[in-house]
Amino acid sequence: MSTIAFIGLGNMGYPMSKNLLKAGYNVIGFDLVAENCNRLVSVGGQTAASIADAVAVADIVISMVPTGKHVRAVYEGPDGVLQHARPGTLLIDSSTIDVENSRAVSQAAEAAGFVMVDAPVSGAVPAAEAGTLVFMVGGTKEAFDRVVPTLTCMGTSLVHVGAAGCGQAMKICNNMMAGMSMVALSEALTLAERLGLDYQTVYDVVTKGSGNCWALQAYCPVPGPVPASPANRDYAAGFSMAMMLKDMLLSQSAAADVSTSTPTAASAAALYQKAVDNGYAAKDFSFIFNLVSGRTGVSNENASD
Ligand code: NAD
């Protein structure tokens, strides 16, 4: 079976690499945090001392790191993938990053003779654990066909959305909607509560009604209705506030690049910014309900002030 170098073993990378192990791949992981490397070893994986060591023996490289800056360092740094991977190694970046950096790394990979796709995911930690992620793949059709067998071990929906960078464009639009939905849901739950409705009733009706959405079903921001949601464990992050702010800001800079006005997303982005500025970066993004409902003492008025 092929060997995969998995770079970035955080909230998402760890469960994704576990599913690759389960499917029979040899997985050599690398993360800057030793504890994240150790947990891969505890489930049968191996780790390397550097990116260079991990990719030197790999047939496939998968990266799952926070931002465009991290992706560029992973691929283009002196210790990085492009310097040390073997010819023919297939490169897959599943991080969520801006289109510009994604295209720049793809071009550098192509210039160095590698085939690369951007393959960001939707579905968050529960889907990463269950192997039911949605992959949005940017790259050539030939590259897409080559990555399908590997991505199938981690996801159930794989869509070839266009050329290099298009996976990121798709992901940015998707997360812009998810970020706005969570704020909309938080406002509706706050209003419902003040009008005398209880959370479970709201959940039971809305999940069958026209207000239904992923934010409610998977990440319900109030304790109770969805046992697995972060609200039931003091908002320990599945998808952190900092990550959602990153994605909302990616949407705003992408919108500016193509002269597109997105006022509702801008307002939601300002609210996530306020949450991060007030010390809630590490909380799950659904903690935004607490700002919206006034529970933190931080005003939600004029969020961009
Ligand atoms: P995370 O912070 O939990 O994990 C990222 C990991 O990358 C960290 O462990 C960090 O140490 C590691 N890292 C950073 N630079 C590195 C380097 N140079 N070499 C090796 N490791 C490095 O983040 P996450 O939640 O797993 O998210 C990762 C990416 O996936 C982000 O781009 C995020 O937007 C995207 N994403 C996250 C979710 C989610 O629900 N958490 C869902 C979809 C997409």
UniProtKB/TrEMBL annotation:
<keyword id="KW-0520">NAD</keyword>
<dbReference type="InterPro" id="IPR011548">
    <property type="entry name" value="HIBADH"/>
</dbReference>
<dbReference type="GO" id="GO:0008442">
    <property type="term" value="F:3-hydroxyisobutyrate dehydrogenase activity"/>
</dbReference>
<dbReference type="InterPro" id="IPR002204">
    <property type="entry name" value="3-OH-isobutyrate_DH-rel_CS"/>
</dbReference>
<dbReference type="InterPro" id="IPR015815">
    <property type="entry name" value="HIBADH-related"/>
</dbReference>
<keyword id="KW-0101">Branched-chain amino acid catabolism</keyword>
<dbReference type="InterPro" id="IPR029154">
    <property type="entry name" value="HIBADH-like_NADP-bd"/>
</dbReference>
<dbReference type="GO" id="GO:0051287">
    <property type="term" value="F:NAD binding"/>
</dbReference>
<dbReference type="InterPro" id="IPR013328">
    <property type="entry name" value="6PGD_dom2"/>
</dbReference>
<dbReference type="InterPro" id="IPR006115">
    <property type="entry name" value="6PGDH_NADP-bd"/>
</dbReference>
<protein>
    <recommendedName>
        <fullName>3-hydroxyisobutyrate dehydrogenase</fullName>
        <ecNumber>1.1.1.31</ecNumber>
    </recommendedName>
</protein>
<comment type="similarity">
    <text>Belongs to the HIBADH-related family.</text>
</comment>
<keyword id="KW-0560">Oxidoreductase</keyword>
<feature type="active site">
    <location>
        <position position="171"/>
    </location>
</feature>
<feature type="domain" description="6-phosphogluconate dehydrogenase NADP-binding">
    <location>
        <begin position="3"/>
        <end position="162"/>
    </location>
</feature>
<feature type="domain" description="3-hydroxyisobutyrate dehydrogenase-like NAD-binding">
    <location>
        <begin position="165"/>
        <end position="290"/>
    </location>
</feature>
<comment type="pathway">
    <text>Amino-acid degradation; L-valine degradation.</text>
</comment>
<dbReference type="InterPro" id="IPR036291">
    <property type="entry name" value="NAD(P)-bd_dom_sf"/>
</dbReference>
<dbReference type="Pfam" id="PF03446">
    <property type="entry name" value="NAD_binding_2"/>
</dbReference>
<dbReference type="Pfam" id="PF14833">
    <property type="entry name" value="NAD_binding_11"/>
</dbReference>
<dbReference type="InterPro" id="IPR008927">
    <property type="entry name" value="6-PGluconate_DH-like_C_sf"/>
</dbReference>
<dbReference type="GO" id="GO:0050661">
    <property type="term" value="F:NADP binding"/>
</dbReference>
<dbReference type="GO" id="GO:0006574">
    <property type="term" value="P:L-valine catabolic process"/>
</dbReference>
